[in-house]
Amino acid sequence: MTVSHIQADAQALLEALEEEIYLHYAGLKPDLNLSSIYDRYPGLTSRQAIQTLDQVLAQESAPDPRRYQYLKAFLLSSYLGQATKHFDDRIATEEAHATIQVDDQTISYRHATIAIANEPDRERQRRIHQAQLEVVERLTPLRAESVGLSHRLAVELGYQHYTDLCMKGKGLDLYGLAERARQFLAETEDRYVAHLGRAADRYLGLRLDQLEPFDIRRMLRAPSFDEAFTADRLLGVFRDALAQLGIDLDERQAIRLDVEARARKSPRAFCVPLHIPDRIMLVIMPQNGCDDYRALFHEGGHALHFSFVSPSSPFEYAYLGDNSVTESFAFLFDHLFLDPLWLEEHVPMPKQDEFVWFTHLEELFMVRRYCAKLLYELGLHSSDRLDGQDDRYARHLSEAIHVNIPPQMYLTDLDEGFYCAEYLQAWLFQAQLRHALRARYGPRWFAAPGAGAFLRDLWSSGQQYTVWELAAQLGDTGLTTEPLIQELAERLPI
Ligand SMILES: [Zn+2]
């Protein structure tokens, strides 16, 4: 296989996978069959393809080596994905069919978390949670085989361990990021404990030491704010927000809205780039509640980014690269719901001060959770044994979020290829980006057409540059926790 064959096949494979994902989650195709798509590209998922890229990268005269580095990262993840696909398909199928029995009711496993969030009776929440953990435990041996196989293959490919493969493949500085995660956890500890305690008392009537995992799910659901977020206004609010930035959603032919209600459609908004930049699906099923608004803005942020990528961008920059970049743009949009000035104009509500406080506490909870996930996953993926990892998981997570997290979730609460690190980098960078937008365009940057033009310029390079390089372009020295900690300190005073 030559490099140009690899490039053409990689794009074809990615687009085929994206289309399958769109059809399945939009409720247009009942089964998800990613394995059969991988099977169509045996050359791409072979060791030879990786070796071909290595040879090109070894040539000193290689033009634009970054493109080949991104392509190699994709080949590494496809190679592992191909090897573990049977486990992944079996886990997905078992999960899709698993049900749990609580009292006289049968609940599908995948809806258990939503059922807990909507269940007012705490003892029933506990029973749903317990039954959910039983399914998790049943599937753990399969997950352990899949993770173990990835770990072994990483070593076979010549890496020290899976962590090493992800760091070198994706160019991630996981240890540097872990340092920032530790610092973030330490600096926000007192603030988090004080405000979580206040929220637990206010919404659940519980003390901090009484909180259990299902209590957090119930609390974050926050039904008391639902009135401000009605399904009929959802799309209009998004359209107006873009109009203020000088972007006309209806004129953006590349973004195709799928708003039709279908029985099997995912209730949560999602974005699928079928072909970048001109065919981007933005799929929504309008429902009430702030979560749905934020999900649309998050996915809408991805859709905007993909649709503004320069048509002359090479495949590697349009489709591959540092995912922290697209996640940052998605976060920038869903974080409008944390900005009181924006809320006043777009989603007026009687309890705005309380809502802003609550969303900042949720933000702090989420970032601390991802810091803990990174620290746990670094240990997990740098070891060749899984025993004891369940306790490490429970310890890291419980210490960070101050709720006793059950060890059973240690292989279920896991994103492939250190995606947790890309989220964490995006969380830091989106705050730096907002800080820069405020400095350039004022506190109402979201209503400045100049800010829209500035973002379009950033979007046009796809994921060519990493968030570290984008931060440098803004005048910062790399990623820093400062702007994020500053925002949280302002809204969560102690
Ligand atoms: Zn996202």
Low-confidence stretches: none
Termini separation (Å)? 61 Å
Which class of secondary structure composition applies to the elements?
A: mainly alpha
Mean pLDDT value: 94
Secondary structure: number of strands? 5
What portion of residues belong to β-strands? under 5%
Query: What form results from the Cα inertia axes?
Result: globular
Instruction: Please give the share of residues in helix.
Output: 55-70%
Strand order of the largest sheet: 3-5-4
Give the class-level CATH name of the largest domain.
Mainly Alpha
Q: How many domains is the backbone divided into?
A: 2
- What sequence of helices (H) and strands (E) makes up the elements? HHHHEEHHHHHHEEEHHHHHHHHHH
CATH fold-level topology of the largest domain: Neurolysin, domain 3
Radius of gyration: 22 Å
CATH architecture of the largest domain: Orthogonal Bundle
Q: Helical stretch count?
A: 20
Largest sheet entry: 3 strands, mixed
What would your notes on this structure say?
This protein is mainly alpha-helical and about 500 residues long. It folds into two domains: about 5-170, no CATH class; about 175-490, Orthogonal Bundle (Neurolysin, domain 3). About 65% of the residues lie in helices and about 5% in strands. It contains 20 helices and five strands. The protein has helices at about 5-25, 35-40, 45-60, 65-95, 110-120, 120-155, 160-170, 175-205, 215-220, 235-245, 290-305, 315-320, 325-335, 340-345, 350-380, 390-400, 420-440, 450-460, 465-475, 480-490; strands at about 100, 105-110, 255-260, 270-275, 280-285. A three-stranded mixed β-sheet has the order 3-5-4. It has a two-stranded antiparallel ribbon with strand order 1-2. Helix 4 packs across helix 6 (about 120-155) and helix 15 (about 350-380) runs antiparallel to helix 17 (about 420-440). The longest helix has about 35 residues, at about 120-155. The structure holds zinc ion. Zinc ion (ZN) binds next to helix 11 and helix 13.
